[in-house]
Amino acid sequence: MKVMLIKNKLVVPTINLLNEMKLKGSQSRMRSKVIRKLMAICEDMQIQEKELGEEFAQRNDNGDLVQAEDSNGYLIEPTKKSEYISEYAKFINEDVELQLEDTTLLPLKEILENYEGELCKDDAEVYDVLLDFLDEVCNGLEEK
């Protein structure tokens, strides 16, 4: 088992990149296993993000949180907005642990190295982070 550190802000783009890849058979199954692990991380992130929003949210006269009209989040208290932005920036840049089984490392590396799709913005960053990690941990695995 190897542990990959990935920033919160890259979890969803990683899921999206992997989902966009056209894969068959065992490659598709391996991708599904990785995506399930990423989805568990994503669910935890959603809870943390909600808690962060609640901490800085406006409340109505009854003490209930005020929902933002244009999103699923809450309206942030104007006097706390800069602190919220700072805390949110820390949150999305925090590293989370993605545990990958040794048996998925080489196939995942092969899939990424042979990927012929176009990469831009988040996809390119995710691709780079994944391959850097896989290059590092697969050293020595390839010889076995």
Give an overview in words.
The chain has 144 residues and is mainly alpha-helical. The chain has one domain. It is built from 5 helices and 2 strands. The protein has helices at residues 8-20, 25-56, 81-92, 102-113, 122-138; strands at 2-7, 95-100. A two-stranded antiparallel sheet has the order 1-2. The model has no long low-confidence stretch (mean pLDDT 90).
Radius of gyration: 19 Å
Question: Outline, from the CA principal axes?
Answer: elongated
| Secondary-structure element order, N to C | EHHHEHH
Query: Strand-residue fraction?
Result: 5-15%
- The total beta strand count reads 2
Read across the widest sheet, the strand sequence of neighbours is 1-2
Number of domains: 1
Q: How would you briefly describe this protein structure?
A:
The chain has 5 helices and 2 strands, in the order βαααβαα. With 144 residues, the protein is mainly α.
